[in-house]
Amino acid sequence: MKSATVARNYAQALFLAGDARGLPEVERYGRLMEAVAGAVAADERIAVALESPRVSKATKAAVLERALGDLADPEFVRFLQAVVRRGRQGLVGEIAQQYHTLVDEKLNRVHAGVTLLQEPDARLEKEVIERLSQAIGKEVRAHFRADRDILGGVVVRVGDRIYDGSVRRKLATLRRKLVTGD
Question: Could you give all domains of the chain from N- to C-terminal order, each with its CATH number?
Answer without folding.
Answer: 2-105 (1.10.520.20), 109-180 (no CATH)
